[in-house]
Amino acid sequence: MKKSQAEPVRLPRADTQAPQGLELRHLRYFVAVADAGTFTHAAERLFIAQPTLSQQIQRLEQIVGTPLLHRRRDGVRLTAPGTVLLETARDVLSAVDHAASQTRQAAGLGRPRLRFVIPADLPDSLAVQTASRLRSAADAGEVAITWMETALDAQFSPIRQRRADAGLGWLTASPDALPAPLEVMSLGEFEPDVWIPSSHPAARTGVIGLDELASMDVIHGSHRASPAIYECWLEVLRAVNPQFEFTDPPVRNSLPMALAFAATADRPAAVLTGPTDIAGPPPGVIRLPRPAGTGDMARVSIPGHPLTATAALVWNGDLPRPLQQILFDTADGVSPPLTSSPPPAARPGAAIRRRTDERKDSRPRGQLELAQPGCIQPLGEPDRRNRPGPRPSRRPRSAYRPVADAATSLRE
């Protein structure tokens, strides 16, 4: 009688395991390219040579067995598999960085670390003032800061997905609309500069209506650079012209080039910058004079401030309390004090928005303030977010100085 042979043990298929040769640096390079949009900008941020970066991305595509990026003349675009890998890569890198930081802190080898995002589209003076105050508060609390330059969308996804701990960005909706566990403090409302040809009739008065602006070709920064502002202002302009579309600038981050192209366009064209000026400065604040135009283009304003964005400091509410305290101190130091507002009858149609102020024990509370209509929607009743507890007493804040006045906000 023949004995039956034992069946061989079946090992897991190789393709169910992590690809051989895959390293964390491959994921970091891939995420950097996806965020930057081009190999050139990604290489600059990573401080490596562009050919080296291209080779490593090709190696990653060989490891996973499929193309991850569409190479185009104007940059790169994710393939469907690339989109899947990007989200997973972000989670993996965030988990590894967080675990390493927690391990070092547990061993007493390092200070707590705060990953802070500063997008490139912020006014220089606002970014500098916030960064300076954050560094001072972090040094006092013995906290190390990792600076991250990346775009923030309206949902502040890098912070919500824990790829970053906090950031300075643009709030284009009610704070209550942000998903949990995000915390937010407003730093002030800003609006863009508007440039039109000097030959345009509105250039003589210095004022152009929103409907008239929407009938022109409007050169504005790319969607990738500032997605929240782009989508918000596009919605406002489409409300008066459903067919409206922005025109991409010829060169990124160059206002003189955009003005030159608008001045020589075949049909009337305008240039709309990002948020640079404080929207409707409070009583007693005087803007420094600025030149009304440059060459064939003139700067104008839009009545009613319909295009606005609120600069806000946003952080993850799950952060340790000492880190949240540092962020609150930073936001509180940058925020201007409340000023008296005219009664509602004097400003018809004014929306109500919430901003924070200090209690006597130095904790913030929600306080209602009138603001011009824009992208910010009316808020609900009480502020549902918890704020850090009492802080040590400190010196009174100095008199309000605009963080982005007209003399410093324009980058020509």
Describe the structure.
By secondary structure, the protein is of the alpha/beta class. It has two domains: 94 residues, Winged helix-like DNA-binding domain superfamily/Winged helix DNA-binding domain (Arc Repressor Mutant, subunit A, Orthogonal Bundle); 233 residues, 3-Layer(aba) Sandwich (D-Maltodextrin-Binding Protein, domain 2), CATH 3.40.190. The protein is built from twelve helices and 14 strands. The strands form three sheets. Strands 3, 4, 5, 6, 7, 8, 9, 10, 11 and 12 form a ten-stranded mixed sheet that branches. Strands 1-2 form a two-stranded antiparallel sheet. A two-stranded antiparallel ribbon has the order 13-14. A hairpin with a 2-residue loop joins strand 10 and strand 11. Helix 1 crosses helix 4. It starts with 23 loop residues before the first helix and ends with a helix.
Known CATH architecture of the largest domain: 3-Layer(aba) Sandwich
Radius of gyration, rounded? 25 Å
Number of domains: 2
Count up the helices: 12
**Might you state the CATH topology name of the largest domain?**
D-Maltodextrin-Binding Protein, domain 2
Largest sheet: 10 strands, mixed
What's the N-to-C terminus distance?
A: 94 Å
Identify the CATH class of the largest domain.
Alpha Beta
Shape: globular
Low-confidence stretches: 1-16, 283-293, 337-374, 376-412
Q: Could you estimate the helical fraction of the residues in percent?
A: 25-40%
Strand content: 15-25%
Query: Averaging pLDDT over every residue, what do you get?
Result: 75
Extended strand count: 14
- String of helices and strands: HHHEEHEHEHEEHHEHEHEEEEHEEH
Strand-pairing-aware structural class? alpha/beta
